[in-house]
């Protein structure tokens, strides 16, 4: 048995020596070649003295040799199967390597290309058979070549991965590529990945151009806004000055008209009295307009002092004052109790004077007129409102409501078109918004927030 084991080991050694390799591929050794190798091994041994063996011993050895022959055939079959699997895996690897979505290149220390996949050759715009041995720097743009040489030096000076971006020269279209490389264990070669980033770079440049354009437009808008602010300040100052300066002569005109009416009443005919009455009424309308303009101007500049304000009480006071001024009106005013807000009380009074005053003007001559002040919630915020059951208006004209000197056609009442514009300005200064809802013949509701 010992002799059979030794011979089996020797046979396996022959099989191992009978395997030929070429570039990693294993080839099957034909039986005739294997026999020749075995005879050569046998002849190389020192001749031994012939042994006298019995017939049974010879038969046993012959049987042992037959067993070893079968074992060798089985091992050879396994080797063939393993060879086929390796060939299949190698073919798959080559396909993955050649048709990868990125380029794979191998450089030496001088930057010469020692290996490349098909994608890498395609990125460089040259057939792979003509690529090997050429210096990669030949394909790099002249301005980017120093950066590539520096990059290559960093790759071979350490074991870490190094990256750079360069522009490749091509006959038809230049490409921006990103290169990442690492040196192998020997330090004589490096393996590199090349990724086409031309689309990304183009998007970055487009974004930079757009950003530059947006920045320029933003600067122009800022300049225009600054000029607009200065113009508004000048306009407000002019408005305030003119309005203030008009008050004195208007007061004189109205005063002299009243004096003439009182002193010369018996000396004037009815036509003259009518003229004086119209003069007085016109001066009063002008004074109210001036007061409205002054309120509109001050609303843009007055400093806001927020405090807890009893909105319900403030609304009742405003309504009471309107009732005293319009003694013949038939208006019922209602205010929900306990409504409070955190705002500037003086400016809130101007809001209510305009909103309740508007409702009073539009609905006072109707029988059963009711004006209500209340509060609701929208999105967790307080929403104050003034509503009436007056004539209402078509929402198609709602865009004109808060524009100075604009009126809704078809409704003739006194006023100057400044009140609602003043309300909008005050509400916006509080950080809120104002809007209206109405329909013809069903009254109107004005909503506003203060934060």
Give your account of this protein's structure.
With 451 residues, the chain is an alpha+beta fold. The chain has four domains: 2-98, no CATH class; 103-196, 2-Layer Sandwich (Beta-Lactamase); 220-295; 304-448, 2-Layer Sandwich (Heat Shock Protein 90), CATH 3.30.565.10. It contains eleven helices and 14 strands. The protein has helices at 2-17, 31-44, 55-98, 118-124, 128-131, 145-156, 198-263, 270-298, 311-325, 345-363, 419-429; strands at 20-22, 25-27, 103-108, 113-116, 162-168, 175-183, 189-196, 307-310, 331-335, 340-343, 369-378, 381-388, 434-438, 444-448. Strand 5 and strand 6 form a beta hairpin. Helix 1 packs across helix 2 (31-44), helix 7 runs antiparallel to helix 8 and helix 8 (270-298) packs parallel to helix 11. The model is unreliable at 1-27 (pLDDT under 50).
Task: Report a brief summary of the structure.
By secondary structure, the protein is of the alpha+beta class.
What are the salient characteristics of this protein?
11 helices; 14 strands; 53% helix; five-stranded antiparallel beta sheet; Beta-Lactamase; elongated; disordered N terminus; alpha+beta; five-stranded mixed beta sheet; 451 residues
């Amino acid at each position: 048995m010992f002799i059979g084991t030794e011979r089996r080991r020797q046979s396996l050694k022959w099989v191992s020596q009978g395997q030929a390799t070429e570039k990693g591929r294993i080839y099957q050794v034909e039986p005739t070649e294997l026999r020749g190798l075995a005879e050569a091994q046998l002849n190389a041994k020192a001749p031994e003295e012939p042994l006298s063996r019995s017939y049974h011993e010879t038969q046993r050895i012959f049987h042992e040799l037959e067993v070893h022959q079968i074992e060798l055939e089985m091992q050879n079959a396994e080797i063939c199967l393993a060879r086929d699997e390796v060939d299949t895996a190698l073919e798959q690897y080559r396909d993955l390597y050649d048709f990868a979505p990125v380029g794979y290149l191998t450089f030496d220390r001088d930057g010469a290309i020692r290996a490349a996949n098909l994608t890498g050759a395609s990125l460089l715009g040259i057939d792979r058979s003509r690529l090997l041995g050429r210096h990669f720097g030949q394909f790099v743009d002249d301005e980017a070549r120093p950066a590539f040489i520096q990059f290559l030096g960093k790759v071979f000076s350490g074991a870490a991965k190094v990256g750079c971006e360069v522009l490749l020269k091509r006959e038809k279209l230049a490409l921006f590529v990103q290169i990442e490389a690492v040196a192998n264990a020997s330090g004589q070669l490096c393996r590199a990945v090349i990724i086409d980033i031309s689309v990304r770079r183009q998007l970055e440049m487009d974004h930079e151009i757009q950003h530059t354009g947006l920045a320029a437009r933003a600067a122009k808008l800022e300049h225009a806004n600054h000029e607009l602010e200065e113009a508004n300040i000048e306009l407000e100052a002019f408005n305030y000055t003119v309005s203030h300066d008009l008050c004195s002569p208007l007061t004189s005109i109205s005063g002299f008209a009243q004096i003439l009416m009182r002193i010369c009443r018996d000396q004037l005919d009815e036509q003259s009295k009518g003229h004086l009455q119209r003069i007085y009424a016109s001066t009063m309308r002008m004074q109210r307009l001036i007061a409205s303009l002054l309120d509109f101007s001050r609303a843009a500049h007055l400093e806001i002092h927020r405090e807890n304000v009893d909105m319900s009480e403030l609304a009742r006071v405003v309504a009471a004052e309107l009732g005293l001024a319009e003694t013949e009106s038939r208006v019922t005013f209602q205010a929900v109790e306990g409504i409070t807000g955190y705002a500037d009380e003086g400016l809130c009074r101007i809001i209510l004077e305009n909103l309740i005053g508007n409702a009073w003007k539009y609905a006072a001559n109707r029988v059963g007129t009711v004006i209500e002040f209340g509060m609701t919630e929208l999105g967790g915020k307080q929403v104050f409102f003034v509503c009436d059951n007056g004539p209402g208006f078509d929402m198609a004209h709602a865009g004109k409501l808060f524009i100075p000197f604009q009126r809704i056609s078809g409704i003739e009442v006194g006023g100057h078109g400044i009140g609602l514009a003043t309300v909008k300005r005050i509400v916006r200064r509080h950080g809120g918004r104002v809007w209206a809802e109405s329909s013809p013949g069903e009254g109107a509701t004005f909503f506003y927030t203060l934060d």
